[in-house]
């Protein structure tokens, strides 16, 4: 479990617009890497290229390499559906399936991929909900609709759903931006626990959050509107926040920017 | 500045808007209630189980008995066959347009669906008459009417399926893709169930529309007063046609039967609507119940 990600020379396009240019970075296994930067700097786009979700939008394309251990995710013959089973994703807004119960939501990834067998599923559902720190809150109402939970619980349900298919890597796109501080804390604690099993990449607008949860931080920026986003620097989180090597990073972190 | 004072003109505007909206509602509902009331009062005279389960075979127009069974059976079969053809077809067209369609072909499909939407029902009837009966040489039958009704229901069903699928949030599709679920399973297991209540309602509206169609049926089912359970051969009865024929007659006994048949048709459509509501409620996202 838990694999290393090696990105090199990565550019992504929406139609003819280049959203990110020449990104190269490495994410170590069993670490949390935070992507920070101003809106529109392409950090979410970079994240979505890591499990080939970028190409779900029509007219998009990607250049460059994303190595998962030694396999190029954009190499010939790679099945994007299989990539997404290996690299899971949690989105900005909690998005449980509205027609499904809590149990069915967690089991969805397995069921929709053809796993039957109630006892197998029961085990995975409990393990995943425990893993997402949600089991004690929902164990008595597994058959109730997932939409009936609070926002924070829904987001943990989505995390349980993502880890139920046992991915190697977990991508999180601003997972706390729609949540209150208490739910945010619950998710951050969870990230700290999940780190022991998964490689985690998290996009966040909240710099304190990046400082709290991540081992390494990558700062992205754009030169101006319509310009592609670029990676300014990536380093150990304490170093990025205390003593960044780039002026732009320091400006952004200290709030002098924009 | 006073926080308690509301300007008189604003109060006046509020009141008048309130009254106009209320009046519009009443005006809109008057014809509906009046139709229902008239049909119930006039139709109740002949409406009973005898009427529902007997045909007009060997019944003279001047007789006070006789019934609509042959017509009810015919309409149910014709509409049923049309729905059996239309529902899977329109589901697939809707899914194609929303999930797969790009470029010329999908634009062409959308355009022709719009054109079909405005197609007068008599034209659909004439089309089947010229192609199926005059062209291919088949006899008048319930199935010929089903074909014309299919043409009329298809655009309604496709359009409503399309609209309902578009309403499903892209976030749900992404959530499913991110779990490594292939596109076709995402559509069948996530998108369709989420849109199902709306799709069922749309299909029911389509069925309700074709159930009352008279013009195409008039051209295609032929003439019979007898029960014919086989929609593929021999003329078959039809409820709207029965209403039409009986109401044209100068005898009061026939006119009474026409009203009773009209009442039957309304009850049938309402029953179907009720069933659709139940299905939609039963399949609705549990949280919204």
Automatic annotation (TrEMBL), chain A:
Keywords: ATP-binding, Nucleotide-binding, Translocase, Transport. It comes from the Bacteria. GO terms for biological process: phosphate ion transmembrane transport. Gene3D superfamilies: P-loop containing nucleotide triphosphate hydrolases (3.40.50.300). The keyword Repressor does not apply. InterPro entries: AAA+_ATPase, ABC_transporter-like_ATP-bd, ABC_transporter-like_CS, P-loop_NTPase, PstB-like. GO terms for molecular function: ATP binding; ATP hydrolysis activity; phosphate transmembrane transporter activity. GO terms for cellular component: membrane. CDD domains: ABC_PstB_phosphate_transporter. The keyword ATP-binding applies. Residues 5-247 form the ABC transporter domain. NCBIfam families: 3a0107s01c2 (TIGR00972). This is Phosphate ABC transporter ATP-binding protein. It comes from Actinospica durhamensis.
Automatic annotation (TrEMBL), chain B:
SUPFAM superfamilies: MetI-like. GO terms for molecular function: phosphate transmembrane transporter activity. It is found in: Cell membrane. The keyword Ribosomal protein does not apply. It is a multi-pass membrane protein. Coiled coil: none annotated. InterPro entries: MetI-like (IPR000515), MetI-like_sf (IPR035906), Phosphate_PstA (IPR005672), Phosphate_transprt_permease (IPR051408). GO terms for biological process: phosphate ion transmembrane transport. Belongs to the binding-protein-dependent transport system permease family. CysTW subfamily. Part of the binding-protein-dependent transport system for phosphate; probably responsible for the translocation of the substrate across the membrane. This is Phosphate transport system permease protein PstA. It comes from Actinospica durhamensis. The gene is pstA.
């Amino acid at each position: 479990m838990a694999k290393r990600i090696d990105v090199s020379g990565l550019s992504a396009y929406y139609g003819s617009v280049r959203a990110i240019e020449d990104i190269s970075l490495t994410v170590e296994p069993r670490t949390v890497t935070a992507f920070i930067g101003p809106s529109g700097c392409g950090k979410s786009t970079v994240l979505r290229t890591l499990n080939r979700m970028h190409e779900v939008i029509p007219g998009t394309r990607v250049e460059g390499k994303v190595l998962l251990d030694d396999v190029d995710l954009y190499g010939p013959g790679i099945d994007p559906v299989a990539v997404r089973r290996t690299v899971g994703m949690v989105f900005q807004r909690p998005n449980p399936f509205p027609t499904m119960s809590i149990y069915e939501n967690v089991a969805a990834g397995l069921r929709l991929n053809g796993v039957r067998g109630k006892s197998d599923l029961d085990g995975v559902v409990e393990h995943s909900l425990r893993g997402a720190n949600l089991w004690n809150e929902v164990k008595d109402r597994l058959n109730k609709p997932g939409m009936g939970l609070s926002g924070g619980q829904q987001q943990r349900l989505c995390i349980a759903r993502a880890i139920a298919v046992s991915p190697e890597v977990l991508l999180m796109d601003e997972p706390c931006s729609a949540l209150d501080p208490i739910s945010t804390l619950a998710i951050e604690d969870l990230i700290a626990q999940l780190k022991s099993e998964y490689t985690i990449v998290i996009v966040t607008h909240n710099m304190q959050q990046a400082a709290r949860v991540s081992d390494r931080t990558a700062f992205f920026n754009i030169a101006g509107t319509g310009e592609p986003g670029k990676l300014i620097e990536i380093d150990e989180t304490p170093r990025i926040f205390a003593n960044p090597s780039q002026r732009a990073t320091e400006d952004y972190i200290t709030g002098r920017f924009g | 500045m006073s926080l308690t004072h509301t300007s008189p003109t604003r109060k006046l505007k509020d009141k008048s808007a309130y009254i106009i909206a209320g009046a519009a509602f009443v005006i809109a509902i008057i014809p509906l209630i009046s139709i229902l009331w008239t049909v119930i009062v006039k139709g109740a005279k002949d409406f009973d189980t005898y009427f529902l389960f007997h045909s007009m075979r060997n019944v003279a127009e001047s007789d006070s008995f006789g019934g609509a069974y042959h017509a009810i059976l015919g309409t149910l079969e014709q509409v049923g066959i049309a729905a059996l053809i239309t529902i899977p077809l329109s589901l697939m067209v809707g899914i194609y347009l929303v999930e797969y369609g790009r470029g010329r072909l999908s634009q062409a499909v959308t355009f022709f669906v719009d054109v079909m939407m405005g197609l007068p029902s008599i034209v659909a009837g004439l089309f089947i008459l010229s192609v199926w009966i005059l062209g291919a040489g088949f006899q008048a039958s319930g199935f010929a009417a089903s074909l014309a009704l299919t043409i009329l229901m298809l655009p309604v069903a496709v359009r409503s399926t399309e609209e309902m699928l578009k309403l499903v949030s892209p976030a749900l599709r992404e959530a499913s893709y991110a779990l490594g679920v292939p596109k076709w399973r995402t559509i069948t297991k996530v998108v369709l169930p989420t849109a199902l209540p709306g799709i069922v309602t749309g299909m029911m509206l389509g069925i309700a529309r074709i159930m009352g169609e008279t013009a195409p049926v008039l051209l295609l089912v032929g003439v019979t007063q007898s029960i014919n359970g086989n929609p593929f051969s021999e003329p078959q009865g039809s409820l709207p046609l029965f209403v039409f024929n009986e109401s044209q007659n100068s005898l009061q006994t026939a006119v009474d039967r026409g009203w009773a048949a009209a009442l039957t048709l309304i009850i049938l459509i309402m029953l179907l609507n009720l069933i659709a509501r139940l299905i939609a409620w039963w399949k609705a996202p549990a949280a919204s119940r």
